[in-house]
Amino acid sequence: MKTHNIAIIKGDGIGHPVVDAAWQVLQAAAKQSGFALAGTEMPWSCAHYKETGVMMPADGIETLRKYDAILLGAVGWPAEVPDAVSLHGLLLPIRKAFDQYANVRPHRLLPGVEGPLRRGGFDILCIRENTEGEYAGAGGRVHQGTAQEVAVETGIFTRMGVERILRFAFAQARARRSKLASVTKSNAQKHSMVFWDEITRQLAAEHPDVEVTSYHVDAMAARMVTAPESLDVVVASNLFGDILTDLGAAIQGGLGFAASANLNPDREAPSMFEPVHGSAPDIAHLGIANPIAAIWSGAMMLEHLGEKAAADRVMAALGDTTGRGIGTVPGKDKTDAITAAVLSALS
Fold this sequence. Notes:
This is D-malate dehydrogenase [decarboxylating]. Helices cover 41% and strands 22% of the residues.
């Protein structure tokens, strides 16, 4: 029997129950489809930081490297550990070390889910550059604590980085409806974003079968609200992609439905799969965290591992569950009840 070895990082807060739920569903789907998932839990989290002074050990990256994929719950507990510490101590190092340069987030309404818009029928795949750009961490502060204090944050855009995420986006567009929207703010950012637009035009000439439209990020935000059905694949820089995908989560019913994949498309290192929501400290003890985003992320992991039939089964079970009104309203159903319903639909 084929076995996929998965590193599990539950992280903080609701990361624990949603990963537990997703793992139950993934194990059931694997059993049905004739393969196995072997999970190894890593206790890396803000609690780990408080105990050890680090979010993950010095050999954490090398420890993860041997796994086929990483399933992550949520990281962060701002009342105890600053978000800048938890983010730069765990999530961003993993993305960069494993060159997970493509962050992929699907935005569509599951059956029975009502979003805040008056319209449905949209199916958007947002692709975010995941390793450089505005989140490169280049910059610094001088004269700290004085009236002359200066903070500099420098976005890093390389031709290799921009071109490869755009090529990935073109490939996704070809596999879907052959429409690509490239998002910048080139009227205001005359270096990095003009550079991005230039490379977009160069690659568009290589892909005449794909309809390419360039948008400023503010116009794209408006379009996602007013005409989301007009969009297919949307590609953006690290910062703009981060913001737009939270808007995408909102129009698909909320963060409880927002799944994501951090992909190394070249498969030279493990990819990581995680729900977009945070650790939600305010509800972590209530048992009402929606596991659907984590389960959906798990389905994306199965597809990446080559188990598309099992991934399709999981997505069908999610659709059956929400179609019966279970898990569609935040806080209405307990985590365990939603999980049981998905497992029942799967069987």
